[in-house]
Automatic annotation (TrEMBL):
<dbReference type="InterPro" id="IPR019591">
    <property type="entry name" value="Mrp/NBP35_ATP-bd"/>
</dbReference>
<keyword id="KW-0411">Iron-sulfur</keyword>
<dbReference type="InterPro" id="IPR027417">
    <property type="entry name" value="P-loop_NTPase"/>
</dbReference>
<keyword id="KW-0408">Iron</keyword>
<feature type="binding site">
    <location>
        <begin position="127"/>
        <end position="134"/>
    </location>
    <ligand>
        <name>ATP</name>
    </ligand>
</feature>
<dbReference type="InterPro" id="IPR000808">
    <property type="entry name" value="Mrp-like_CS"/>
</dbReference>
<dbReference type="Pfam" id="PF10609">
    <property type="entry name" value="ParA"/>
</dbReference>
<dbReference type="InterPro" id="IPR033756">
    <property type="entry name" value="YlxH/NBP35"/>
</dbReference>
<keyword id="KW-0479">Metal-binding</keyword>
<protein>
    <recommendedName>
        <fullName>Iron-sulfur cluster carrier protein</fullName>
    </recommendedName>
</protein>
<comment type="similarity">
    <text>Belongs to the Mrp/NBP35 ATP-binding proteins family.</text>
</comment>
<keyword id="KW-0067">ATP-binding</keyword>
<dbReference type="GO" id="GO:0005524">
    <property type="term" value="F:ATP binding"/>
</dbReference>
<comment type="subunit">
    <text>Homodimer.</text>
</comment>
<comment type="function">
    <text>Binds and transfers iron-sulfur (Fe-S) clusters to target apoproteins. Can hydrolyze ATP.</text>
</comment>
<keyword id="KW-0378">Hydrolase</keyword>
<dbReference type="InterPro" id="IPR044304">
    <property type="entry name" value="NUBPL-like"/>
</dbReference>
Length: 372
């Protein structure tokens, strides 16, 4: 990839858009080119999407004629229209629809149900940020994979994807038969929006665009046959959680939600809201994890309850949900995440690794009792 290639591709796209649909305000949101694969995101309006539905093939053909492009993924970001996108004359000629959000090109068959070959989904959630939810999700997924479950891990945080860094993964996914192929890492199938965009790029998207991208990270990825897909949700109780519970209702009923919280009252207050959301959407709550439960001095081994201790256990009892366990606040957990090797793999005998594995075993025993 050279600056000249990027510049010439941008000129090609701009010329096409200006000549073909100047009134629809379509523009380049992001463009990356690595190893001959072009990933292009166009920002458009509803009318622009209707135009591109018919013009998609022409644009793709022109891009593939560029000497630096061997394959491409074309995506749109925009507000979803209130009704069906109108088709122009000639749309019956076989041009496939280009959905809003993120959709790899080259797909001609009707979309399948989300995750048809996944048995169960475990959503790892928190009511607020900064409680170590992503670190917990990664180590739980690795532990489940080590328990001989076919495991996938989906980073559902569109604004702040952390999975690529925490797994030490720098490759880009490829498109096979019109679908993204997950990246295999540490014995798991993994996917994140962070694999598709530059790590320095800010995802300045409105809610409907984010929901479209999240939906297609589930439906337009070849997850294959999995026993369990662990989904690392963004913090809070908003659109992402509602989209997941709506799209994956049956898979979540086979699995459920795991809530991560620290022991202090303010975090538990937000965790309670998370439990309420999943209960209202009829999603089983598998239990509550107390993260950063206590701190052990690496020099004298003295234990200090920096954020209090036992609050999550008491909250779980009050909410009548299982208490899954305690994870300490340790430097080794942070270092392993920064280095790209989950602690349960980097140091399996570490006390925190044993805590993660115990929780994973509890989840497996509940979801797959016949395999125990």
């Amino acid at each position: 990839m050279t600056a000249t290639d990027i510049s010439s591709l941008k000129d090609l796209i701009s010329d096409f858009l200006t000549a073909e649909e100047p009134a629809h305000q379509t523009s380049i949101e992001a463009l990356t080119l690595e190893d001959g694969h072009l990933h292009l995101i166009l920002r458009t309006t509803a009318k622009g999407a209707a135009f591109l539905q018919d013009a998609q093939t022409t644009l793709e053909d022109r891009l593939r004629q560029h000497p630096a492009v061997s394959s491409l993924t074309l995506s749109l970001t925009a507000h979803r229209p209130a009704g069906p996108v109108p088709r122009k004359a000639g749309a019956e000629s076989g041009h496939r629809p280009l959905a809003l959000g993120k959709r790899p090109t080259g797909r001609s068959a009707p979309p399948e149900a989300c995750l048809p070959d996944v048995w169960a989904v475990i959503a790892v959630a928190s009511g607020k940020g900064g409680v170590g939810k992503s670190t917990t999700a990664v180590n739980l997924a690795c532990s489940l994979a080590r328990l001989d479950l076919r495991t996938g891990l989906l980073d559902a945080d569109i604004y702040g994807p952390s999975l690529p860094h925490m797994l030490g993964e720098t490759q880009k996914p490829v498109v096979e038969n019109g679908r993204l192929r997950p990246l295999e890492r540490w014995g798991m199938e993994t996917m994140s929006i962070g694999y598709l965009v530059d790590k320095e790029q800010a995802m300045i998207w409105r809610g409907p665009m984010v929901m479209g991208a999240l939906t297609q990270l589930m439906s337009d990825v070849s997850w294959g046959a999995l026993d369990v897909l662990v989904v690392d949700l963004p913090p809070g109780t908003g659109d992402a959680q509602l989209t997941l519970t709506r799209k994956l209702s049956d898979k979540l009923k086979a699995g459920g939600a795991v809530i991560v919280s620290t022991p202090q009252d303010i975090a538990l207050l937000d965790a309670r809201r998370g439990v309420t959301l999943f209960e209202k959407t009829e999603t089983p709550v598998l239990g509550l994890i107390e993260n950063m439960s206590y701190f052990c001095c690496p020099h004298c081994q003295e234990r200090t309850d920096l954020f209090g201790h036992g609050g999550a256990r008491k909250e779980a009892e009050a909410l009548n949900i299982p208490f899954l366990g305690e994870i300490p606040l340790l430097r080794d957990i942070r270092c392993s995440a920064d280095e790209g090797t989950p602690l349960v793999l980097r140091d399996p005998d570490h006390p925190a690794s044993q805590a993660y594995r115990a929780i994973a075993r509890t989840l497996k025993d509940r979801l797959f009792p016949s395999s125990c």
